[in-house]
Amino acid sequence: MRSFKYGDEKISGRELMIALPSIVISVDILSLPKEISNDMNGSDGWIVLLVAGGFSLLIIWMMARLAASFPGQSFLSYASTILSKPVAIVLTLIFGVLFIGVAAYYIRVLGQTSQQYLFEQTPVEVVSLSFLLVIVYAVCGSRAALFRLNMLFFPIINIVLLFVLVINIKWVDVTNLLPVFQTDLKSYVKGLQTSVMAYMGFSIVLFYIAFVDKPKKAPKLAMLGMLIPIVLFILVYLFCLMIFGHAATSNLLFPTIDLAKRIEVPGGILERVEAFFFIVWTMGVFNGTTLAFDAAILALNSVLKRMKKVKLVIILSPIIYYIALLPRNISQINMFQDFIHMFLVSFAFSITIILVFAAKIRGVGRNDKANK
Amino acid sequence: MIKRINKALSCFIALMLLSGCWDSVNIEERGFIVGMAIDVAEEGKSDGNYQLILTNQFAVPSGLGTPSQSGGGGGKSFMNLSASGTSIYDIAQNLANQTNKMPFFEHLKLIIVSEEVLAIPELFANVLDVFIRNRDTRRGIKVIVSKGKAMDILNVQPDTEKLPARYIDRILENSMRKTGEMKPVRIGDIHEYLLSKSSFVLSEVTADDKKITFEGGAVYKGVSKSIIGNLDLEEMLGFELITGQEVQGPVVINYKEHLTAYSIMKSKSKITIDADRPDNIDINVTIQMEGEIQETFGTVILEDPKVIQELEEEISEKVKAITNQVIDKAQKELEADIFGFADKLEKFHYDTWKKVKKDWERGENYFSESNVKVTVKAEVRTDGVVDKSKE
Q1: End-to-end alpha-carbon separation of chain A, Å?
Q2: Domains within chain A, CATH numbers bracketed
Q3: Is residue A179 packed enough to be buried (19+ CB in 10 Å), middle (13-18) or exposed (0-12)?
Q4: Which position among A29, A268, B271, B377 has the lowest Cβ density within 10 Å, counted as fewest Cβ atoms?
Q5: Which CATH number, 3.30.10.20, 3.30.300.210, 3.40.50.12780, 2.40.110.10, labels domain B246-391?
Q6: pLDDT, tens digit, for every residue of A262-289?
Q7: Searching chain B, which residue's CA lies closest to the CA of residue A241?
Q8: By the CB < 8 Å criterion, does A278 face chain B?
């Protein structure tokens, strides 16, 4: 098979900036309003979304700074410099496994949701499989091309999402946002946990900075990109509250889909606008899943240097498919989701902090020219 | 050679994978359900569950014809099928077996529930569960109550419209322009009411062969989980004015002992609550109306500012009487907060709300004890194109 090769495998800073929100938004946008309003009273959820967002910005800045201070080096190589080779290998492998989990989770949610809303008779296995095959095709190709595809899809996803919000303005009742500041402290902690986990996807930054052409600018751009999901999450959350009210929002499985279903275009010509929303959402999940899968390959490939990428993809896809189909029902999917979220977030955060401090103490990175 | 086999194989696989669709149902095989009616069967309770009768109205496209064909195909344009059972979903599946078409709920517009169903505690919420839960049904489906058998409503055959369900749907869409008939309640709203255990009002209709008539409203009380009373048309008008729905329509008053009809063109309401102590809740409702004099049996000359003032006062008094009557009924007789005061209280006085939440409509009955004051500001804009029509 011949494939077109780009001049280099470098990605631009802006492509990285778009990739982050893609992977963060992809799946969580559907259920996030429900989860947050389950934890929080009134419309107080925006506070935790904002605080958790700020926290994520801080972490992402640390990650990007750390990775950028070793320009052109993979995670494995700079982690070996900071800690030691065996430790770095273990860390990389864990990241690889986690990203495999994320990809599997995304595939399952896509399969489950489209089976629930679109294909009643089609088994979820088939939906997931066909989706996985497309993902495999995408991942086998050039890495830079993936990022370019992201650039293409991302604006479309955002425009449709905003369109869904704007067209629903007719049903908005602003008083639904009241009462404010009536949540107790315990719920704040819980809400913070939920919203931090929603932002989990951005850990890929640790791996991708190595490919950015101008790594110096990367931390700023990464933070800028991270602002997009924060704003979008808050907007969607507030709109769900204003349209459905607090009680209904916390009881709808996917409030965002119901937002799309709520649309009634006068004249009765377009009765099912949500179909359009689904198409675009699938594109979003596609973006997120390819990134997660690709990050997993990147991590594993840096350890197993001799293995060819395509071979790795072919070995990994059945594993991902198997993991994706492990949960039997919706509550097991939720458990799977919580597990992946929790593990990835706490692991990525603690590793970042450890690496940053270890690098400081041992004085490696940035000025460390000899190591290059 | 191997290359060629590869190519052929991939073409074959693509053919297999891309042409199949598990879910394809051709449009002529779909049975479009446009309306549903839910009744309690005469047997009543059996095996601990109520026997229900579900009636589906299928649209028959051949009977509908095209607009240009004036009159259409001549055949009946709808088909009503009923079956009984205990679970709505189970009955719907039975009904599917009675037709040669796949039932399709995406175009369901209207659910009619008989008063009997609502009178049995919890049954209404249970019956609606399947519609809220199902992926095909939308949150915009309208729900109304029938005074007699719900399935009779789906049998009205108006001359102007071929599909009964669509006829009722249209009436509900237009009903905002008439008083006493309210904005249709949608299933999404009901979901919110049920979740917050609020009381609400559904519009109630009866039907004869050719038309449906609005009877007023059925009051569903959140804590008793059933309907507990009715509102007549005038009380419905009061209810709509208080809750600030876009009421348009006539109010008939006596001005200087002559009948005079005032038509509301625009109305809005503002509810403010003063609640520092649970046992002293003041609710102020301000209703603002704009309208015209449409008809008088006496003589009204509006050029005189004094006449306008008198008329406005008269109208305000009348509207105040109407609204006070319905508030009185809600507080004393029904003890049900149909106006959504609880919602306002929760939003604007959360601390007080936490204290009264448990006893709002029962126990201490804070709702009944609260002081509701209505202020009406009616404005008369014009009196038509003549000063006098007679001497």
Answers
A1: 35
A2: 13-362 (1.20.1740.10)
A3: buried
A4: A268
A5: 3.30.300.210
A6: 777 665 566 667 778 888 899 999 999 9
A7: B192
A8: no
